[in-house]
# Entry
Amino acid sequence: MRTAVRTAIATAVLAGALLAPAGAAFAATPLSAAAAASSVPDRYAGTPVSIGKGVVAVLRNKSEGPEVWVRAVSPDWKPGDDYIGKVLAKLDFEHPKASVEGLQLELVEEDVHHPILTVTKDGKTSSYPLPKGQGPECMSEPTHISIGAGMGARLFTSPKGPQAQLFSEAGDKTFETLTRTTPSLPEGAGIVARILNPSSAEPVFEWKTQGGGMPYGHQAFPKLPKGCEYDYKLEQPTQKPQPDPKPSTEPTAKPSAKPSAATPAAPKPQTAGQTSVVPKGGVAAGAEIATEDTDDSTTALAGTGLAAIVAALGAATLHRKRRAGAQR
# Structure
């Protein structure tokens, strides 16, 4: 049994050794344009141009400044093929000249934002302009916001990505800087401050400095100036901002269906107007005074006068009856 296992292992090792050259040859085969673009690291990505048989110059002018990476490629190299081969030379403004495979190379600073590469062979010179520069003019204007708790934030956008500087509004002193590679404060910082989708074309700064039901704050970063490019491959946004707390639609206290015992009952409305009974006869004058004046004192006086008149009439009638009886 052990002999069989050892034989199987030896066979696998031998097969791997035989297949290794074939795998290496396959890996050396030029890649398609799409595959080549996806395999180039951001730090070395640029514009490749053929400057000689089996030699390309990769032209860059990003945040590191103007650079030319001279690399060895296959003799039948054409645009769209992979260009990450052996480095033959590197040119920048500190080392602007090199000699490679009989080619005299020089990085010429005709314009600080538009340097060119000159290639001279057999007395003939060719020029290759580098991409537009990504210098200070590619930094956006800052956006200043107040995030509460005595703090503020300055938001920038540059070819390296979004940047948020957190500072104290009292002394305007920056105490933390968030970037594309460090997009959020560590846990336990006491506040929330982070860059959502930092590698996308639409990053958003999100913060929360007060607890409870206070909502999150959101502010989009300023756009990169026109004509400038990011130093990295943009990604699709995947993070969504935290939603604001929704207000409750139910009332906090339901009104009581029955009135409280301490609350006085509402007075009943009168269904008919006040009426005055106007007597007829000799007391009509006093009654008319009572109906015309609604003051309580006037009404009382009128009532008193009416009673006196009635009493006087009664006494006069009784006196007449007594005189008539005596005359008989």
Remarks:
- Residues 136-220 form one domain.
- The radius of gyration is 51 Å.
- The CA atoms of residues 42 and 233 lie 7 Å apart.
